[in-house]
Fold these 3 entries.
Entry 1:
Amino acid sequence: FQPKRNIVPFIVGLFCVFFGILVFNYGLSYGLTSMGNEIGSILPGVFIKTEAVPNSPRFGYEFGIFLIVLFAFVVGYVATQAEPALHVVGKQVQDLGMMSKTALIQSVSLGVAAGISAGVFKILYSIPLIYFLLPGYFST
């Protein structure tokens, strides 16, 4: 137990954390959420007629589905590449001599991108989740 003389830095730190969470939540609510809603309303205009996109559909149905799945793949890959915690883990794995940092980051990024693409494909075609899970269970 620390003496009471350390209470002032604790209260200052608590205020800073509260302020940081407040700013983060504000940015998330008015930045990323708005952008996600806008992209989510425009993206279907690639392959179906929608009011949000004039002159939709922009492409044929099959090519539009391909573009949506490709977009999901790229977003998943890039977001995983930008994850700082993965870089820290990659450095630790490389220091242990298990595999290179680049190989770990690439394999995780490709796995996340493939998973997100499969999820989008599942949603677009209403495929039951069990069809994605059973091959993994049987392969182990």
Entry 2:
Amino acid sequence: MEGEKQEGRYARLSTDSVTLCAENLGVQASQEVASSVVEDVSFRIRQLTDTASQFMRHAKRRKLTVEDFDKALKWSSVEPLYGHSTGEPPGFHAIHESGLFSLPNHEVRVADVALASPLEAYPLPQPPRVKGRTDEKY
């Protein structure tokens, strides 16, 4: 009973999710392999979340941020995530007909964004200079 309560506190992936991901990659995974991967991934997620929450507590905050997870990944010698570092949560919009939520989809014209700001001049690297006395005669 105690072990079931403890295990129920954590999120677990399903073996079906792992099997589906393996099939999408073109790999045939048996049920034993999928359950082993589920256990390992679930443990890694719990470990990462615990480390990130330690960074949150040391910063004396009550809100877990992406930066906390980036620090936890760096602490674990894993490459950090790129692309999501906003301080505000994403604004979900309700689709009333289906009961789903979605992120706002903004169309961006790449040409307008590229031409909106002037291009900065990139400095060319300077050749190395040798300090000291030279024996060359001109």
Entry 3:
Amino acid sequence: MHSFQPHFEPPALPTVATAVAKQWQEVKLSGDQSYDALIILVGEEHLSNKDGVSSVNHPLLSQQNNTTQAQVATAAKLSTFKAKQGDTLPPVVLLDAAGQPCSLLLLGLGSYKPLPQWGQNAYHAAGSAFAAACKAHNLKDAHVAFHHLPSATETAAAITSFVSAAINGLYESTIRYRSKPDQTAHLQSLQLTLVSASTSSSGGSTGGESGFAAAAQRGVTLARGTLTTRYLVEAPANVCTPTYLAAAAQHIASLDPKHFSLVVLDEQQCRDLGMGLLVGVAQGSEQPLKLIHLTYKSDDAVKHKVALVVLDEQQCRDLGMGLLVGVAQGSEQPLKLIHLTYKSDDAVKHKVRAYRFREIVVVWMICFGVARVVAAFKVNKEPSASLGPSRSLPSA
């Protein structure tokens, strides 16, 4: 299993391996395999009910004997499995050609629709359902077989969505601070097989095993960034101290020192820079002040810019925001208007909102997760890049 730095992200994630098959005959339903269950993704078009007889018309099942097909169809009927998005058919124990038991699990995709560019999709829902099934049935090693979708780009997006949702779903934050160690089984390995007629390593984004592996790795990387954010947000205040967050930033920066630089200022350095308000607030805590400045520098030209502007009361008056100023006068706290601006080459979008302190903290921790994703992508893109040795926090 992958090992990570303790305390800043989950200590281990399932290993993810990929393979490409030319046809479904290469995907074996056998009790001799090293996995606990074979999982296939089926859509509503794979289920039929003719003359009162239900059947699952999937290419993998069509090559099995009639008894096996009947067992799966009966199990689907008894469990009311309709292959809708997010549906799960619990493992069905079958006998292979040699008479050895093997488990088959079905995940529903619903009716086929082109994957949206953003947001959840059928494969994201299937990944979440897969994670729930692994927990419910104590699966340690699983094998998931995929159909190749109409386009290579759509196939890559589907694989990424499935892997990301699966790894996020497998994580349980509730066991982190339990007094007793967790004794339940956890998924240790995930084998993914893409059944495609094209197996050339240069045949598009998922035309070969290398492209398939890249799509799966992207899902793992996105999940790592999300889990880093969750790991920080769920930590109690006596754990997630300023010193702890500074160490988390150091951990992220050490993953890709070529592109990340880190400066952590202590109380005296903040005083020297005239940050009296920040120093004053920090004096209400026994924890030492840490101001974290994590910088990412891209090798490419900057195409997108984000600017954060904070306006005070007088600036709001100058801009004609009399109503806002009048409302703010009912509070002892000074008026602060946060103006977050995002600018791209294609369009300019503005979003203005007064954020509560808790929201700002959560958004800031999400930035840690984004940085974790960026660092992982850079390391994956440049395999020779070293993660770098441990180092002390740099000074200003």
